[in-house]
Design a protein that fits this description.
Number of domains: 3
CATH superfamily of the largest domain: P-loop containing nucleotide triphosphate hydrolases
Helix content: 40-55%
Distance between the termini: 16 Å
CATH class of the largest domain: Alpha Beta
Structural class: alpha/beta
Number of helices: 14
Oligomer: single chain
Mean pLDDT: 81
Order of helices and strands: EEHEEEEHEHHHHHEHEEHEHEEHHHH
Radius of gyration: 29 Å
Strand content: 15-25%
Largest sheet: 7 strands, mixed
Number of strands: 13
């Protein structure tokens, strides 16, 4: 990180303003070479200056230049931001001049990566930056802001501190058993302390399921035999004609997707090919995709016709859905009821043709995921697969330590599992990390961030 990097931080296109960001030990000096205005090497930090970007004696653009000296900057290095007129040609030209004068083009996410490596933010906060940029709802924005502010990191830090205190107590007991004024930590006391940590991890994991839903949304597949109205239901849910609707069986041959914002949560609907035996190769591939989606979806809407009796295939799929979040959607409610369903709680009767009870279907989806009960005031949840997986590994290590306590395994052996949990929690916030992981994570950021 010895060199000075530069990149365009705003989306390229026609707009009022574009921003080119420069960070590094030579940031102020390099920008000062091409800036016709106040001498930037003499200005105070966190100030903005009017002038022009020039190449030789040619004026490139009229600009405002912000100077932020390290360590009080995002990367902790000297940062200069050039605010120029929006437009592809002007913005690229200024970046080109910076590169010719000693800057290197930043890699995707390199500004945030430097902030992390320089100790300005931890790994969870860095991931929060991406989440803020990609937030699609108010709830997901609030969630990302809490992660970016460090509130989520504090949950993990507090857990690690509790574990450190336990480990310190164990070490003192092992190394200095003769000290009578030190708390003696036997199996019973150790179990109480570790159980408390275990319960806290379980609570965070449970809450993080809500965080994952808020961030990524719910994947809902619409499954059923041909001509039960799956595509019509999708169109009604999306309030647009997304899927082709005909009376011909097998019209939908591949998945058709659409998304709605349901009171702050993203619902990703997937309409699938009708499930039936068919000699049509293309349709049969679509049918297999439909069956595969049952396992992959968060929620399955299984659609039946009100005026048709259950087939054996229907019964088999309903049995398969017992262990899945699902709703039985009975379409064509205006026709004679020939269905016999027993012990089925999640049933909604609708008419896609007449647009009846679609709101009831949405309400049922909300109730399954407790949308109204998800806390929005203090969204301190883990939200990504990496951190949740590490927390689950930490939970497993704590479980192993509890088993060791119950089996009266020597305490110095139990300590190994406790230390493992502490290290795994450290990986979540980046206290310990592998360089390959860091490179992979920040490569997902946009240029200029």
């Amino acid at each position: 990180m010895e060199d000075t990097i530069a990149a365009i931080s705003t989306a390229l296109g026609v707009g009022a303003i574009s921003i080119i960001r420069v960070s590094g030990s030579e940031a102020i000096t390099i920008v000062n070479k091409i800036f016709n205005g106040k001498d930037l090497t003499t200005v105070s930090t966190h100030t903005i200056h009017y002038g022009h970007i020039v190449e030789n004696d040619n004026v490139i653009d009229e600009v405002l230049v912000s100077v932020m000296k390290g360590p009080k900057s995002f990367t902790t290095e000297d940062i200069v931001e050039i605010n120029c007129h929006g437009g592809i040609a002007t913005t690229k030209k200024i970046l080109e001049i910076l590169l010719l004068n000693g800057c290197r083009l930043a890699e995707p996410g390199e500004f945030t990566k430097r902030a992390f490596l320089n100790g300005r933010i931890d790994l969870l906060e860095a991931e929060g930056v991406v989440d803020v940029l990609s937030a699609k709802t108010e709830k997901s924005r609030s969630l990302a802001i809490n992660q970016l502010s460090g509130k989520t990191s504090k949950l993990i830090e507090d857990l690690r501190q509790e574990i450190v205190e336990v480990l310190a107590n164990i070490e003192v007991n092992i190394d200095y058993p003769e000290y009578e004024d030190i708390e003696q930590i036997g199996y019973s006391k150790l179990q109480v302390k570790i159980r408390k940590i275990y319960d806290e991890i379980c609570t965070i994991l449970k809450d993080s399921e809500n965080g994952k839903i808020i961030k990524e949304g719910i994947n809902v597949s619409i499954i059923g035999r041909p001509n039960v109205g799956k595509s019509s239901i999708l169109n009604r849910l999306l309030e647009e004609d997304k899927a082709i609707v005909t009376d011909i069986e097998g019209t939908t041959r591949d998945v058709v997707e659409g998304t709605i914002n349901l009171e702050g949560l993203i619902i990703n609907f997937i309409d699938t090919a009708g499930i039936r035996k068919t000699a049509d190769i293309v349709e049969s591939i679509g049918v297999q995709k439909s069956l595969d989606l049952i396992d992959k979806s968060d929620l399955v809407l299984y659609v039946l016709n009100n005026n048709e009796e259950l087939s054996q295939a229907d019964k088999e799929i309903i049995d398969k859905l017992e262990t899945k979040n699902h709703i039985i959607v009975i379409n064509k409610m205006d026709l004679e009821n020939k269905l016999k369903l027993s012990n089925e709680k999640n049933i909604v009767y609708i008419s896609a043709l007449e647009d009846k009870n679609i709101d009831k279907l949405k309400d049922k989806i909300k109730s399954i995921y407790n949308v109204d009960d998800i806390e929005t005031d203090d969204l301190t949840y883990l939200t990504n697969a990496r951190s949740i997986a590490l927390l689950k590994e930490s939970k497993s290590a704590i479980e192993d330590s509890i088993k060791g306590i119950e089996s009266l395994v020597p305490i110095d052996m139990i300590e190994i599992d406790i230390k493992k949990a502490w290290n795994l929690l450290g990986e979540i916030i980046g206290k310990t990390y592998q360089e390959e992981l860091i490179n992979q994570l920040f490569s997902q950021f946009c240029l200029g961030k």
